[in-house]
Each structure stands twice: as structure tokens, then as C-alpha cells.
Amino acid sequence: MSDIEHDAPAADPIGDVDPEIITPVADGLADARAAILERIADHVVFDGWSPAAIAAAAAEAGVSAETARLAFPRGVDAAMGFHLRGDRKLAEALAQEPLGGMGMTDRITRAVRLRLEIAEPDRETVRRAASLFALPVNAGNGAKMVWNTADTIWTALGDGSEDLNWYTKRATLSGVISSVTLYWLGDESEGRADTWAHLDRRIADVMRIEKAKAAVRRNPLGKIAMGGFDRLTRGVRAPRRAGA
């Protein structure tokens, strides 16, 4: 069965992102971060993901300048927090979506589209974040954000893989998310129709690759080759959230 079509009970998710930003509870700054992120989008449009934007949003929220600096020491920290806030909204929205009657491919397509629909009111803010994450010094954090979105989707859709598939599913979906997001940022078509067509094409590309992989596994020589690969990767296990 292909990675993108696999359907299984939910597994414990993991995020390879700074835990203080994902779940900022231990340091007592959760409320301050949430209040700043609620107001920061309009300021980012003018000031970028900068200390000035953080300070302006904090002032609106009644958060002291000192607390704001502790909450988000750098602009990239605020950009990451904003992205993860959108991922949490996505998880909540997917829990309410009537996905039961859809095939897995349609579920994934719907989830990616829903993530962009959540971001639509703040498209310019996302554009600024994309430019920030494109800088070499921030590229690793940008990759983590895309990975977190892919993990959010697979977890919400009930992925239960515990081996190499855990990684390949998220890596494949991360590529789709990155491509579609960049297309969306430049799309001026009515209702973003061109973006949704691009999304459909990317998902179709993935399915063609998965079908080709399945055909290799059915071939006698392919079975031998893939059998060796499977033995090499047999010890690869999905990570688990701390405390799980």
C-alpha cells in the first residue's frame, strides 16, 4: 500500500520543534505569546517579523516590553509561533471535518487546502515569513515548520505508522505543502482556483510515484532489491513525544 494511501489508527505525534514554542507552558509565557500572536499580523505587514512588530503587538495586548522580549527574543521565534498557531487551528478544524466518507488521498488534499484557507486572511504575513525562512540562517526552522504541518495532517488523519513510513509520509507531504504554498503566495486567480488545481496535480504526481514503487515491489527482481532495503531500514522507528 502506498505511503499516502495508508490508513491506520492514530499514533503518538512528535514535533521536532522547540517545545517552548509549541507548548509554552513551563516558562509561564503562554498567555503573553498568545496575546502577541493574536495581534501581530497587521504589524508584520509594515515592519516584517521584527522586534518593532513584536513590540507593537505587545503594546496593543497590554504585554510589557520585557515580557515581550522574553516571549519572542527574535522575529523568527514569533514567525514560528504564528505558523504553529495556524497548525493548531488546522488540527481543531480537521477534527470537525466530515472526512469519514473520503479516501485518504481526498483527505490529504482537503487538509492541505484547509491549512491555506486558514492562512488566507494573513497571506502577506505568511509571505513575509516565507522570505524570513528562506534565509540560510533560518532555513532549518522553516523546514521544521513545514514538517510540523505535515505531521499535524498525518496525525489528524490517523496515521499509525511506526517505522520508516512515518518519515517518508511526512517528507513526501512536506514537499507538496512547500510547493503549493509558494504557488498560493503568487496566485491571483479567482478563489485561488489555480492553487487548488496545482494541489491536485502535485497529489497526482505523488500517487504516480507510489504506484511505480508498488510495481517495483511486485516485480521479482524488485522484490529482491526492496527486500534488501527493508532489511537495512528495519530498525528505523518513529519518534515518540517526550513522556509518551
Automatic annotation (TrEMBL):
The keyword Membrane does not apply. Keywords: Lipid-binding, Transit peptide, Ubiquinone, Ubiquinone biosynthesis. GO terms for molecular function: lipid binding. Residues 141-210 form the COQ9 C-terminal domain. Pathway: Cofactor biosynthesis; ubiquinone biosynthesis. PANTHER family: UBIQUINONE BIOSYNTHESIS PROTEIN COQ9, MITOCHONDRIAL. Membrane-associated protein that warps the membrane surface to access and bind aromatic isoprenes with high specificity, including ubiquinone (CoQ) isoprene intermediates and presents them directly to COQ7, therefore facilitating the COQ7-mediated hydroxylase step. Participates in the biosynthesis of coenzyme Q, also named ubiquinone, an essential lipid-soluble electron transporter for aerobic cellular respiration. This is Ubiquinone biosynthesis protein COQ9.
